[in-house]
Amino acid sequence: MKDIVISEAVRYVGVDDKTIDLFEGQYKVPNGVSYNSYVILDDKIAIMDTVDKRATSEWLANVEAVLDGKKPDYLVITHMEPDHAGSIQVLAEKYPEMELIASVKAVSMLPQFFTMDAGCRCRGVKEGDTLSLGVHTLHFVMAPMVHWPEVMVAYESTEKILFSADGFGKFGALDAEEDWTCEARRYYINIVGKYGAQVQALLKKAATLDIQTICPLHGPILKENLGFYLGKYDTWSSYRPEDEGVLVAYASIHGNTAGAAKQMAEILKAKGVEKMEITDLARDDMAEAVENAFRYSRMVVAASSYDAGLFPPMDAFLRKLKAKNFQNRRVAVIENGSWAPSAGKCMNELLGEMKNVTVCGTVTIRSAVKPENVEAMEQLADALLAE
Ligand SMILES: Cc1cc2nc3c(=O)[nH]c(=O)nc-3n(C[C@H](O)[C@H](O)[C@H](O)COP(=O)(O)O)c2cc1C
Ligand SMILES: [Fe+2]
Ligand SMILES: [Fe+2]
User: Fold this and answer.
1) Mean pLDDT to the nearest integer, 111-128
2) pTM higher than 0.90, yes or no?
3) What is residue 352's DSSP assignment?
4) Which atom of ligand 1 is nearest to the CA of 339?
5) Which domain holds residue 272?
6) Which of 2, 308, 384, 386 shows the smallest number of beta carbons within 10 Å?
């Protein structure tokens, strides 16, 4: 078991998953992911969430080691998504006297996932309800759509710990040596990004609590500098750019559009842009491209025309941005086509469906970049950087 110290009474029993190929069926996790779970030892014993069924046996061994022969009184379920709820039935069958504590909505979802008859063992809780364990008391705070409808978080008021469900989670197993912000941002934007308003509502409730530790369901336990993490969540959930800079995203069939995008990046650099990422939407990680679109204040999209439409990798990217509520950014468009360029119109239409996205101009390239295109890109760069 991972030797992670939260406190004498609050123990980590989670599991790292380093063999999963795609998290949630689509996200690459080169450094794995952790399914966090906790046990609170007091007069009454509470287990805080279970883990994905990929990790049930390792997790059960961790739980048993911490219980040391005792029996749990409660399983607190903050989220019904299978990466956390996948082992509920196994645990419930192992400890038939254990009560299941979950939001009313989560209680109603239990029979969808499981065959056990848990009805009489479930306690549906509402905003403000509490559960006393002895010295420790859990206060339940509803967090609907962060990022499923049944989600709640639990605040333990004696040790001032927020059990934050998927909030403040991060890709990467707990022993991954990597920057928190990058993988937490990729996780947040892609998984929760659409629900900024709901995250803002939760942050407002959290602001009324004295929080000293955040125990999320993925990634490291946060004990220091909590203002930093809360600040990142405030930025991300309010759709404000995090950094002044540019994402250059391109989708190119034969390479000419890719060349134009790289030339545009050089032009922007020469004009003083310091922070910039370039991504090939057909080859690089799409989730990282989406993350970086949200991170930076400005974006360049460059794509080939394709069958009187838009080359599919760019189409997929822009639709993902729209689905995640992408907004409040300035964008420059570069299209390429050999007989009837159509990519620009398509990109403009998709961007036009987004809230407060300003298209600063569109440059058309016919097959390969010519000197007049470079001139037009210079002007486009100026327009993108204006304001
Ligand atoms: C399958 C396919 C469909 C295409 N459809 C169009 C089109 O509808 N209109 C157009 O102007 N060019 C079309 N093209 C041509 C490319 O958009 C054009 O050659 C462009 O310069 C390619 O840029 P690239 O070098 O970045 O791939 C198509 C090319 C392919 C392979
Ligand atoms: Fe989730
Ligand atoms: Fe999760």
Assistant:
1) 90
2) yes
3) H
4) 11
5) 243-385
6) 386
